[in-house]
Amino acid sequence: MTVLTEEKDTARETALHIEGLSLSIGATPLLADVSLRVAHGETVGLVGESGSGKSLTSRTALGMLPRGATATGEVRAAGLDVLTADRAALRDLRRTRVSMIFQDPRSSINPVRRVGHYLTEGLRARGTPADEAIERVLELLDQVGIRDPQGALRRYPHEFSGGMLQRVMIAGALSTEPRMLLADEPTTALDVTTQAEVVTLLKRMQRIHGTGMLFVTHDLDLAAAICDRIYVMYAGRIVEEAASGRLFAAPSHPYTKALLEASPSVRGEKAVIKAIEGRPRALSEAPEGCAFGDRCPLADKNCATQVPVLRPHGTSLSACLRPEQVTP
Ligand SMILES: Nc1ncnc2c1ncn2[C@@H]1O[C@H](COP(=O)(O)OP(=O)(O)O)[C@@H](O)[C@H]1O
Ligand SMILES: [Mg+2]
Predict the structure, then answer these.
(1) What percent of the chain is predicted at pLDDT more than 90?
(2) pTM
(3) 51 C-alpha to center of ligand 1: Å?
(4) Fewer CB within 10 A of the end CB, N or C, for the chain?
(5) CATH 3.30.70.260 fits 2-227, yes or no
């Protein structure tokens, strides 16, 4: 019976479904009421300045909570209820159905093991025979643009450049044909040319396998180029959700607008780059009411007394008391 139910769920399930996620360490809140969805085959952006909670959110999707953290709400990744799952179920999830690409490949690949071992372990864990796993991985290395795949298997991580190691990590993330891919600033450490190649590769892989992708970045321009839908995060909360085109044509949160103005290429070469005044806030040090209130040109006294909830504004969702005043 259980098997049947699981299969039925799989057919309908979104690749990632986070509902009302709040996370804290002791008395320090880090995320508040985060909800987001990624459908199969969909590319969803999660953007915001450094410290807004993007990595915490994406790691929580894999059940990787910071030490001592408690989480409430619901997180379902590839059908698994992550917050209540035991270690074995989480390990199985990470090895077989949900992959993550981390910002810095060097800190997430074991430096003393050969790349071939790293790349085949997911497949081996699924019971794929060694020779088949190697064959599959060689194919992937070729697809991600590693010139000598056979040689690469015998090498150690330090023998690769940053860009090449990132490609190795992407090959590893894709080796199990995951239903969901969490890409946390996967190209931030790379030069612009490599960045473009890696993005093209991710999109191609995603199309082939119908993988849902959460693309985490502080780079709005990049998000605009590749995402169907975007969530904007500030101080541990989602403050806007919109289709990519809509977000850029008509932002409905002052923070999104400020991010757009601070991002030169979205606005064309002649745009004056305006830095956002003040510094980003952590949820625990955010002002009363709207966390963006102390940096917001539209804020008035009402903004200091109530935390705005996400509400529809046109086709977007905005957590602002007066989204109609946010002009493009
Ligand atoms: N392990 C941790 N312990 C305590 N605070 C943390 C931990 N990880 C992240 N934080 C805090 O949570 C906030 C969000 O961090 P993070 O998700 O890494 O932001 P982003 O990825 O958007 O740059 C930051 O204020 C950060 O200092
Ligand atoms: Mg981060």
Answers:
(1) 65
(2) 0.90
(3) 6
(4) N
(5) no
